[in-house]
Design goal:
The protein has 269 residues and is α/β, with parallel strands linked by helices. 38% of the residues lie in helices and 17% in strands. The strands form 2 sheets. Strands 4-3-2-5-6-9-7 form a 7-stranded mixed sheet. The chain has a two-stranded antiparallel sheet with strand order 1-8. Helix 3 links the parallel strand 2 and strand 3. The radius of gyration is 20 Å and the shape is elongated.
Length: 269
């Protein structure tokens, strides 16, 4: 799908890019092919896409597997996609969907995620799509550091912890603005998450991590005091930290993802 095709589709279907949905349509066949290759889709794969847009990836995915489903918030795009590709689409705001309404155990997840809702979408996918083995996302390049950040760095936070707990996180390649129509004002990047850990990421685990980073300049004891006061914990936080050979004065940014996993087990499981 090139720029001319995108413009023709929009014009002939009386559609336009909606800024309120952060829409910039991918229009570079090489990038499209590379994303599908990175996703490692096989005939037996089942694929879920969030925000298919004009179907830049849809056609390539359906050439490999018929087990494909996508969630599209824009009604006009939903009608166009449904007419062109058939009954593979759900018209909804993904963040408002219940798990049972969209997820049937798909093992490959694809999404071009607008920056302003990147974190809630990625979190929802990691919590609810428990059978997913591979996730491939297009994100703004400046957001990548928040995703791949290491402990002790300024960018390290809840999202980097969750992604590391899911598995191997990799920045695959950058995508310049001229690969989209209309052109965004920022550089984009494709990242992949490949599951390699037998970790179940729950809502409760996410809440613990987010509370841990809620007061960055404070100790973990301080940051978690309010959150844990409403929970029935197995042991006191200070005791849990001692069991993990961590200082009582440690801050969240100094904990490794494995530390959060073990802390969650000690406190709440």
């Amino acid at each position: 799908m090139n720029k001319g095709e995108v413009i023709d589709i929009l014009s002939s279907n009386e559609l336009k890019a909606q800024s309120r949905f952060g829409q910039n349509f991918l229009c570079d066949d090489d990038v499209i092919d590379e994303i599908i290759s990175i996703a490692d889709i096989k005939p037996v794969s089942s694929v879920l896409e969030i925000g298919p847009g004009l179907g830049a990836l849809t056609e390539g995915v359906l050439d490999i597997t018929s087990s494909y489903k996508a969630v599209e918030i824009d009604h006009g795009l939903f009608e166009y996609l449904n007419e062109r590709f058939g009954d593979h689409f759900i018209h909804s705001d993904f963040l408002k969907l219940e798990r049972q309404d969209y997820y049937n155990g798909e093992d490959v997840i694809l999404s071009n995620i607008p920056y302003y809702i990147m974190t809630p979408i990625m979190k929802k996918l990691m919590v609810e799509c428990d059978k997913a083995q591979k996730m491939v996302f297009m994100v703004e390049d400046e957001a990548v550091q928040r995703i791949i950040a290491a402990p002790g760095t300024k960018q390290y936070g809840p999202l980097s912890v969750l992604c590391s707990c899911f598995g191997i996180v990799k920045k695959e390649f950058s995508v310049p603005a001229n690969c989209f129509y209309p052109m965004p004002h920022t550089l984009s990047s494709v990242i992949s998450l490949t599951r390699n850990l037998d970790i179940v990421i729950t809502e409760d685990f996410c809440d613990l991590i987010e509370a841990s980073f809620s007061k960055r300049r404070k100790t973990l004891n301080n940051s978690l005091s309010d959150y844990l006061s409403s929970k029935k914990t197995n042991i006191e936080l200070k005791e849990a930290l001692r069991k993990l050979n961590l200082s009582e004065n440690i801050r969240a940014e100094a904990l490794k993802p494995d530390d959060f996993i073990e802390l969650h087990k000690l406190l709440l499981l």
